[in-house]
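agent> Task received from the user: take the single chain below, predict its 3D structure, and emit structure tokens. No templates, no multimer pairing.
agent> Plan: (1) validate residues, (2) run structure prediction, (3) serialize to tokens, (4) report one or two observations.
agent> Step 1 OK, no nonstandard residues flagged.
tool_call: predict_structure(input=
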Amino acid sequence: MLVLSVILFFCSPPAPQAEPVAPPPRAVLDQDPDRRAEYDRRREAAGKDVEALWELHVWCSSFGMSKESRSCLRAILKLDRDHKGAREASGHLFYDGRWFTTQKKLDKYKKEEEERIAKEKGLVRFEGGWVPAEDLPFLRQGLVRDDLGDWVSKEDLERQEAGWIRQDLVWIKPEEADNVDKGLWKCGERWLDQKEADAYHAELDTWWVIPSEHFLLHTTCDREVAEKGLDAMERAWRDLRRVFGALPEGRVPVALLRDAAQYGVFAAGDQVSGRPGVEFAALSSIHYAFFADAWFDRLTGAYMGGGAAYWDASAPNGNSFGPHAARHAAAHSVIEALDPSPTALAKATPASNPETLRRAFYKEKKLPEWFRYGAAAYAERYFIDSLVAAGGKPHWAREWSIENIVSKGGLRPVRQILSTELSISDPNGSAKLINERGLVMAFILDGACEPVLERHKAIRDALAAGEKNLDKLFDALATELHKQTSELRKFADL
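)
tool_result: status=success, residues=494
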């Protein structure tokens, strides 16, 4: 019997463990008058004492009195909106220095803040993210930025990572890289020396495409001249910063042709070869540089709108005038990047009426014509030459330009300079008008006239803020310039 008892003892199932004691149901609590009376007494005693209310919340929680607990939390938050414990106990979420009562409200705030900050920075939506508006055309083409900040295809980026090198914009296989070290240039499928490469690139369809820090130069000039042109353009870039403040990121396209004849073909087009013109109006014929407002890439159809000029190194004084032409063209490229016409261009097709497209294109501009050409002329011929040696004349270009105005009848009234439109029907008058506008811009920047400086600063600030309608600001500047006519003439020593 003893053995059987032992066996039964060891084989018997273990005694059941006690279940955790759950808080009594609400109905039980409601039937506990003593606990309810204790709550009412403590709530009255707590009054507006945040610490006492918090202790009462904890006491209520321990007895499962959720309704009374929430009431305490609400009372605390009425007295102290930032009470961390009460906020967290209420399920609130802390973000960006403030509390949100629900995840839905927090998500809504994040979305609104994201959109507000993006718009302040001039960003636009693209594939679920925010990107600079000027990046949109490149991203839509599937391009990406490489380590140098250039837009390249994903294939080109892979080449770069695989050890390929780039000569200008041409990718060179690793096994051909020694040709670059020898001073040769990849032209089509051939490797040519400098003289042969200059001859190859002397035509419009095979021109050099040379990148610099801020420009992408398309040129038929010999390489030596092209590099001098880029140097002049980069110095103009620094002058233009004084006009506009912030300048565009990335490189802007610009064209520099080798002589006047080629310049004319580029501007007006060529029926024999089927090359289209690159300007809406024939303004190229009034100067040695112009704004190629209808310049589209012949292969890709991408809009290239920018400045164009010629530098004829073989002509008398060609190397003297070339840098000024390059500066003027560079300015128009920068201005177009700052003040584009994306809506008009988005609607453009090969069948678009040129005059209709031209009107829509310029209607979208924020900068008036006089200011655009004034900036270009300032960069061309009114800049302060920092390369002049000590004791020299840094304002020599300004003096030369003012002498030119005097020789052609003198300075016209300010209102006329600002309101007259450039026209091919008056080429000499239009060429003089560009020069006069450069003088007006020089007065704005260098005349030390406080009222004019204030009006100009307002425009720079508005450009930096991305404001779209600047008409009132330009009207104010024009009015002030008219008032300061005597100061302008004194500045020009007229």
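agent> Step 4: summary for the user.
Residues 26-89 form one domain.
agent> Done.
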